[in-house]
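Now read this:
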Amino acid sequence: MTEAPLWERDAELSVIAEAVDALCGGSGAGRVLVLSGEAGIGKTALLAEARRMALDRRCTVWSARGGETLTSVPFNVVRQLLQPALVSLMPDEAREYFGDWYDIAGPALGIAEAGDRQPDPQYVCDGLVAAVRRLARREWPLVLLVDDAHWADEETLHWLAAFTDRLDDLPVLVVVARRPAGVSGESARHLDAIGAKALPIAALRALTPDATAGLTRATLGEHADTPFCREVWAVTGGNPYETVELLAKVQDSDLEPVESSATELRGLNQSARGRGLVDRLEGLGVDATRFAWAAAILGTRITLDLAAELAGMPLDEAERCAELLGAARILTGADRANGEVADGELEFVHPLIAGAVYRSIPDGLRTAMHGVAASVVTASGLGAAAASRHLLEVHPDDDPELVEQMREAAREHLAVGAPAAARRCLERALLEPPLPEVHARVLYELGCATLLTSPATTIQHLREALTLHGLDRELRVDAVCRLAQALVHNDQLEEAVRTIDEEVTRLKPGPERMRLQAVHYMWEGLHAGEQDAPGRSRRLTELVKPLTGRDNSERALLILRAFDATTRGENAEEVVELCDRALVNGRLAPGLGWTDTEWTFELLMMLGVSYTFADRLDRAESLFTEAQRSYEIAGWSGGHLALALAYGGYVHRRRGRLRDAEDFLRESLRLVDRVGRRLPMHWSVVCMLIDTLLARGHVGEAEETAARYAFEPPHPSTNVTPDTHSIRGRLLIATGRLEEGVNELEVAEKMAASRGGHNTVMAPWAGELARALAASDSRRAAEIAADLRAQAERFGTDTAIGEALRCAAALETGPRAVALHARAATYLEASPSSYEHALARVDYGIASRSAGELDRGLTLARSCGADGLVARAQEALDTLR
């Protein structure tokens, strides 16, 4: 006969069976099932049946369960889930098996010591995905069961959403059980993402009267009469869990299942849940009740010794209480089917019981027990992070020690990539509140904890920290710099500059003041709407003149001056000389590395960009490759890694490796999308990608990308590389919107005039505008081309001069055009830009009607991946032949 909890679940069991069959049948692709329903509706029973089916087919099965009181414990559920694999790996074996991901995923899983740097939570998630994918290939076919996912911690749900998104080539079945409501924020978003990947299964419904009658007779015997069975359904509402518990009470009470006994069912049902369950618990005695309360406070890893210590009783008394609670179907031995558990480890029979027992503890006593639990957990050596979930429940009481415990817990959470948990700890520390001399530091730490994940939150806390006493001068300057960085990434650039300036006025000359001055010029130099760019450039030039690069503040100013000279199109040799002076023996100085926190990564991006547009692409590529490697090692896979990939990709674009450039930029865009939407960094990456797609001749894809990311006015307040107005104008002209394109290029022209100059490669509006106006206004086109050539010669790179000559040639005819095309090809052959060289060769071949030049251009275009140019060159060759 069908097991009692599984009545009227044939459809769900069929879907589970088909999924297990597909998994074992070698289909290759993984699947996701989500079982949704209210409490007690039978989700856990279906998971148990899924386990049985999978084990019968010799699958590996790992399972885990969320907990109502454990949602604040980061990585709690994923650690449970992977426990069987983790305990089977020796430390050296785990390091070898996980490879590069060991230092990233290991601390989150509790099998490796955390490093010194705060890892990016997204990279920790990626590391967990990679680690589990490797384990899955070792253990296949693998079934992962997650019960009560609505109570899983946010970090686990982040991982699970990412993992289920990558099951196409993995022999894994993931079955998730959750309630349909009661989740919000990031956890809700992750659960929705998991559900979107799942096979369709209707939400579980209550049992019908007929099914309840069948279940009743299967449990109590066929002599259970119809009125009795109908009353069982009426009392329980067809809830399977309540029905099973009620029938167990009927058996325990020797109640006859007949109509005359039906009136007693309601009282029995009340004893199985809520207040009735509490009354039943209290009936077991004061000691058993106190032990059950201690178990509910601990929530997970309920061992006899910890529960006994928390309950304040000797171990033999704890054992007696555990036996009583086991006989009463309240506690049971922990499930050993999912890996090793400690001797005597216990768990509640059902989450509904755990919740009822926890809520039955008087409020004041519950708070006090959490405080004791924190002490017990700390004394057991589990660390501040493990104790912090209990301290979160303790009422504020001006306790300096609690503040320090929460600060330490926050540091532990940050070290494993759980900034949300760190934020909760520090917010709780603020409620205590901290001592006046500590308060500002807690706010500072809270701001730093959210810097990688929530710029708006960072702004709020750092602003408040700066209004208080308690930060020494060096820490205060660091707080101001971090606040300015958060403001920039929140698209509040003007306020960032103003914040820096206000602090500069407070400081006397010295390293801290110079650091702030450097940060001021950095953010001001990125301001697209800057009012006095020439004046700022003059002031920066004067400030840098006496500097030799003796410390990092001076080196930062040298980089900023190099970037300023690059954007204004000043002499490229001087740009390179400034960049080289900012290095130490050709390398980044200590304390000025990609992951060092004193100086923001934007500064080093400026260094790489300056080398890029000065035609020193080898140095730029080396810098951005080092950035990518540094961020991967440090576990930063959010905006930092995204921009490292983007600028590295744009170096490929400048070299003419268009396929590689597109790959880098698409991966960068994928990472940026995970950070947020409509961020300034979106503009940079999208602009570079559109420029690359247009170079490839993929105009439709460029237009689609622009539409998807709203690459249109209003433009961001920060300058973007390459110039957005220039690239958008090029796109509009390529898609046949000539007038709109000209308007956009003229905006770029006006902005260049306000800055007192421009880099003709970084902001290529002049060449595009001259070509666009050639037919309608040849005189103005010629003037623009002449100015372009003068500006390019001022900058002095082969790329800039070659491109200016190519533009001039496009406006000429006859021998004059051929001569200019020849000169352009010569300059661009000497440049590192093989795509621009290919363009020049094809143009020269067409102008001179030379099949040899066209063949050279065609070969170059093919090697670059410039499909549009390949078609153009081939068409010209076909015409000649």
